[in-house]
Write a structure and sequence with these properties.
By secondary structure, the chain is mainly α. It folds into two domains: 145 residues, no CATH class; 139 residues, no CATH class. The protein is built from 15 helices and three strands. Strands 1-2-3 form a three-stranded antiparallel beta sheet. Keywords: Membrane, Transmembrane, Transmembrane helix.
């Protein structure tokens, strides 16, 4: 081995030693850094928490969206009050809905038996003679008959139509055979159910026609002044349900309020989403937190203000004996919007919590990992 080779090997060994020492120092420095991060983890997490709040806090533009969304929700509550856009008489709704259906049936040549069911009345709509002692009247028959229940009516109402009967909403499921505009005799629900099964087996199209008629009857009743009772609540307390219906709080007003509220939220969310800037926000979920805050806050403000206004109007009406003002107060009560608000507060809070966790712990995890080693 000559002198040059020896020098070359010495330099190579020295280079390897230096690199090893350098890498060891990097490991020492990285260990110290990780130890410092672990030591200051509470402060770091607090700082990341504050950073998330800053990134998702409402800016001037967001506040404008908040005010606009709140204004739309409040305007909806009073322009689309519970007593608006209704037929005064059920017959008016029947005429509007039945005419196009009758024309369509005549064009398609549907069998007369099916046509009579679809275009005729429903047996659970009759007001029986007082001597039967059913307790049914023109004012309460929608709350007291299962055929008018928005959910159970699809089963009980359809069976009643097929068998020409009515079934009351009580523990015994009191049932009656109907002929013309009055009760013909007392029957039982098991008998009605068995007869319905036999009819469906013999001609399933009669079942189809009865279901169609049930849907048509729902449609005509829903838009009248008396409306359809709220499901579940009507089964718990028909008396309270009757009070709500008298004040136009029914299936139609609640679902309409909820639907329009959701529509406004969807429009606001879509337009606000157009302002997303990927250079400013870590990802779209972080930006969506701002959107959801706008929707939750606007819905909450609108609902709280609505409840306060209705409470004030109701109190004044009670103190002054002004029945007209009291009824007006009920007409403004936005149950559908309140349901949407409660849903948003729960759902949006959970979404924000998850995004916040991903942001804070994701950034903390990146701090722990540091940069990749190059050895």
């Amino acid at each position: 081995m000559d002198l040059d080779e020896l020098r070359r090997r010495r330099l190579e060994l020295q280079s390897r030693s230096n690199k090893t020492l350098y890498n060891m120092q990097k490991i020492i420095d990285e260990s110290r850094r990780v130890a410092e991060v672990a030591r200051d983890s509470r402060q770091i997490l607090d700082n990341l928490d504050l950073e998330f709040e800053k990134k998702t806090g409402l800016t001037g533009l967001d506040v404008k969206f908040l005010f606009f969304a709140t204004a739309l929700q409040c305007t909806r509550q009073y322009l689309l009050s519970n007593d608006k856009f209704r037929f005064e008489k059920a017959s008016d709704a029947d005429k509007l809905i039945s005419k196009p259906i009758r024309d369509a049936l005549n064009k398609t040549g549907v069998k007369k038996d099916y046509k009579d069911i679809i275009l005729g009345g429903v047996p659970y709509d009759i007001i029986p003679s007082k001597h039967w002692g059913t307790g049914l009247s023109g004012l309460n028959h929608r709350e007291m008959t299962l055929g008018h229940d928005p959910v159970l009516g699809w089963v009980f109402g359809t069976m009643n139509i097929m068998t020409g009967s009515l079934t009351k909403k009580d523990l015994l499921l009191s049932s009656y055979s109907v002929k013309g505009n009055d009760i013909e005799s007392i029957t039982s629900f098991p008998s009605i159910a068995l007869s319905s099964i036999d009819i469906a087996k013999e001609d399933y199209k009669l079942l189809v026609a009865s279901v169609v008629k049930q849907g048509i009857h729902y449609a005509s009743d829903a838009f009248t002044a008396k409306g359809l009772p709220l499901p579940i609540l009507n089964n718990i307390s028909s008396g309270f349900s009757s009070t709500l219906i008298k004040n136009n709080i029914d299936m139609y007003s609640v679902t309409r309020g909820a639907a329009v509220s959701v529509l406004i939220n969807t429009i606001i969310a879509a337009v606000h989403g157009l302002y997303y800037d990927e250079r400013v926000y870590l990802n779209r979920d972080v930006y969506e937190v701002k959107t959801r805050k706008i929707l939750s806050y606007s819905n909450a403000i609108a609902s709280v203000s609505n409840v306060i206004l209705v409470a004030i109007m109701g109190t004044v009406a009670a103190q002054t004996g002004n029945a007209k003002l009291g009824k007006k107060a009920w007409s403004y009560l936005d149950i559908g919007g309140l349901m949407v608000t409660i849903y948003r507060l729960i759902n949006d809070r959970e979404f924000i919590r998850k995004v916040k966790e991903e942001f804070v712990f994701g950034e903390f995890d990146n701090l722990i990992k540091g940069t990749d080693y190059d050895f």
